[in-house]
Amino acid sequence: MVKEKDGFAEYLKKEIEKYSGIMVPVKASLAERLMVKKAPVGKLHPNPDDEFSHPEVGPNYRIISKYMALYKQYGSMKKPEEILEEPLLVEKVRPDGYMLLNGHHRWAAFWNLGVKMVPVSIVNLTQETDIEQMIAASTHDKRATLDLDEVVFWQGEGPAEKPLKGLIGRRFKEQIREGIPALLHYLSKNGYDIWVYTAKYYSMDYIREYFRHYTVKVDGIITGTARKTKDNDEAKKRVEHLFSERYAQTLHIDRDMVLRTFADSKAFEDYPVKETGSGWSKAVMSIIRKIEKNEKRNA
Length: 299
Prior knowledge:
The structure is a single chain. By secondary structure, the chain is an alpha/beta fold. The protein folds into 2 domains: about 5-120, Alpha-Beta Complex (Conserved hypothetical protein from pyrococcus furiosus pfu- 392566-001, ParB domain), CATH 3.90.1530.10; about 130-299, Rossmann fold (3-Layer(aba) Sandwich), CATH 3.40.50. It contains 11 helices and 12 strands. The strands form 2 sheets. Strands 1, 2, 3, 4, 5 and 6 form a 6-stranded mixed sheet that branches. Helix 8 packs parallel to helix 11 (about 280-299). The termini are far apart.
């Protein structure tokens, strides 16, 4: 089993010290994201805020050893992309190279095995400046939010929309829950900006293009919400302030509830969604109609 004394721990420590305080995410071009499928192992940097980089938590050398044993079974390491189900997810950073988003232990296994080039997939996650720009471009004073992982993408329960076909279907493999396109069209028609969230590491442009194939325009996209950052609390406060200045009200649409909140108040309204199958989107639209009707009546 690989051990801490084998050299990787010292390398990891030096990497974190070298890039601490100076590593900044930057946008990778479309050409770079499409063309770059491998990167030098030395150009991949650990995320200093990931548990992997914290000595009191990780790395787990037993896991690294398991990956090394697995990779050795494949013989030649000249084509490491052939032995991975998924490439290492990375984000382009300044001053150089890429920061690991997912796959720290696999990266460590490659480093210990002496592999020079490793398979990667570059993504552009949502940054605070992106959120500022999307809010500035918004045209409404109310929004609807939906979780891509829990609400929008089909999880195997209930009916789904027909999958995208051909080359488009090969690129966009996620299926969408039945009724979601109709619901999003309805929200947009009735004056709501549509914001979608995901804890996964999708590129913003991937999500935007995905919805275009359903002729749906999403106004806000926030990806990688599970990523830990040192100034997460402060960044969250700044973003929430921007939202409260732009949107007087928000509809948080969940699997079993629509929650309505207001920018200038801690008050909220919750509406249970009792339908779970093919009638789910219809039930949500019925709730929104009820809200709009009450709004006009009280105006």
